[in-house]
Design brief:
- By secondary structure, this protein is an alpha/beta fold.
- It has a single domain, classed as 3-Layer(aba) Sandwich (Rossmann fold), CATH 3.40.50.150.
- It contains six helices and nine strands.
- It has helices at residues 3-16, 30-38, 57-64, 76-86, 123-136, 166-173; strands at 46-50, 68-73, 93-97, 109-115, 137-148, 155-156, 159-160, 178-188, 194-203.
- It has a seven-stranded mixed beta sheet with strand order 3-2-1-4-5-9-8, with helices on both faces. The protein has a two-stranded antiparallel ribbon with strand order 6-7.
- It is globular.
């Protein structure tokens, strides 16, 4: 899928469905939040949520007192909805409309979060994205990636995805970052279906 087609696709999704109708809705993304606690991510850490859309991860980060949050998504409508939901709190967040595989960052981050973006990327896009992460993750910074597992769906929002196992997701990323650990977890969608995810965490090597 070309970039323009991808933008149009996601703008349509966010125009026709509210935030609690989409399959990835989580009022409290407990799996993602647990990594913050596991890695003892300080409140002043630079955090980026790639493909964050209008998810509630940012709401929870603000509630926990995190002070330096960036949310990136290809859909301008998605970010607009998140900002409207947060009201004046949205002024505490940096919002970026961009494609993850061509994102040019002016900052480096301590915690890079990606729940359900990586599995949409073709091999060449994934390579570019991982190079971007490697270049823009601070020494000892953490990356957390969640994708559909081999027991999960083969499509999301009408787009074919790449399923990963703990091994294949780890192997794809540990060329760039040191793998810490992986596990699978079930996600209950608003329509009451179960989606199995694999989550892997990584750390940038101190040079």
């Amino acid at each position: 899928m070309e970039t323009l087609e991808r933008i149009q696709h996601w703008e349509h999704i966010y125009q026709t469905k509210n935030s609690k109708e989409v399959s990835w809705y989580q009022e409290k993304p407990e799996t993602s939040l647990a990594f913050l606690e596991k890695f003892k991510v300080p409140k002043d850490a630079k955090i980026i949520d790639c493909g964050g859309g209008d998810s509630y991860f940012v709401d929870n980060l603000l509630a926990l007192g995190y002070q330096n949050i960036t949310v990136l998504d290809i859909s301008e409508k998605a970010l607009k909805r998140a900002k409207e939901r947060l009201g004046s709190q949205s002024n505490k967040v940096k919002w970026i409309v961009a494609d993850v595989s061509s994102f040019q960052s002016s900052e480096k981050y301590d915690f890079w979060h990606d729940r359900a973006v990586f599995h949409f990327l073709q091999e060449d896009e994934a390579t570019k994205y991982l190079q971007i992460i490697k270049s823009n993750l601070n020494p000892s910074g953490h990356l957390v990636v969640g994708t559909f597992s081999e027991n999960g769906p083969t499509k999301c929002s009408g787009i074919a995805i790449t399923q990963y196992s703990e091994n294949t997701l780890g192997q794809a990323i540990e060329k760039y970052l040191k793998k810490i650990y992986c596990f699978t977890v079930d996600h209950l969608t608003p329509s009451k279906s179960i989606q199995n995810f694999v989550f892997c965490s990584f750390q940038n090597q101190v040079v």
